[in-house]
Design brief:
about 25% helix
């Protein structure tokens, strides 16, 4: 059955929200950094890949103005509706834009920009990664910060590598009672440090009917010192690498790789 792209985009935004909407482990990390950088809240915060507003909206609720970009119209629509329902829509400027060029942003500068929860990995080549870093740096004030949160490239954290399909969980929609089941298949390409994956979403409605939507994605896994070199090449100065949101040092067992860099 043919599924119109705009419908698929809205459904994928809904599925993303069901899976990640209640994830809060990193919220205080971003709110605290925003507050430390700009206690007077004079400048907006830039989120690269804001999705459905999981972080942007709490930042707005904390009193910060936020510019959020995403390539998905469905994600931005969901974010706008949620911000409106929570009374902070006027604090959010939402722009459909690519991280690599950031066209269409408001004419302003930022104290802080961030890219959360492995969103940076959607940039599948070093050329794409440097384009993003080079686009962000001129938008930051002197000594402004960029926060990048990546998954550590540890084997047990990577997606399926040899074509196998793994079940990744089920998520209930509290509004409709539908249950979303998620499966992921993938192939690794060590020479390019990439994974080609296919996400299978199976939506089981309360009446027993179901719908499947698939989403192909490519991720690129970046090592610590490769990321440090990318930041240096783009004109950033690395300040710290954390291994979790509690600000512990990055080590062999860290599942997060969080970079704090300054202009």
């Amino acid at each position: 059955m043919y599924i119109h792209q705009s419908y698929k985009d809205r459904q994928l935004a809904r599925f993303y929200d069901l899976e990640y909407g209640h994830y809060t482990d990193d919220l205080s990390f971003y709110v605290q950094h925003a507050q430390a950088m700009d206690p007077e809240k004079a400048l907006p915060v830039l989120e690269l890949g804001c999705g459905t507003g999981r972080i942007a909206i709490p930042l707005a609720e904390a009193g910060h103005r936020v510019v959020g970009i995403d390539t998905s119209e469905g994600m931005l629509e969901t974010c706008a509706k949620r911000a409106q329902s929570r009374g902070v829509r006027e604090k959010l400027s939402l722009v459909r834009a690519d991280m690599q060029n950031l066209k269409g942003l408001p004419d302003t500068i930022f104290n802080m920009a961030f890219c959360a929860l492995n969103t940076f990995a959607y940039l599948a080549t070093t050329t794409d990664q440097l384009a993003m870093l080079n686009a962000v740096r001129p938008l930051l004030v002197q000594h402004g910060i960029l926060l990048l949160d990546l998954t550590s490239p540890l084997r047990h954290l990577l997606p399926p590598s040899d074509g196998e399909t793994l079940y990744e969980g089920s998520f209930k929609d509290p509004e409709t009672g539908a249950i979303l089941h998620k499966f992921v298949a993938g192939h690794a390409h060590p020479a390019t440090q990439t994974h080609d994956i296919r996400v299978f979403y199976e939506l089981e409605e309360r009446d027993g009917t179901s719908q499947r939507i698939t989403q192909p994605l490519t991720f690129r896994w970046t090592s610590r010192y490769e990321m440090e070199l990318l930041l240096q090449t783009a004109g950033f100065k690395l300040e710290k690498v954390y291994g979790n949101y509690d600000l512990d040092d990055y080590d062999d067992n860290s599942e997060r790789m969080i970079f704090v860099a300054r202009t």
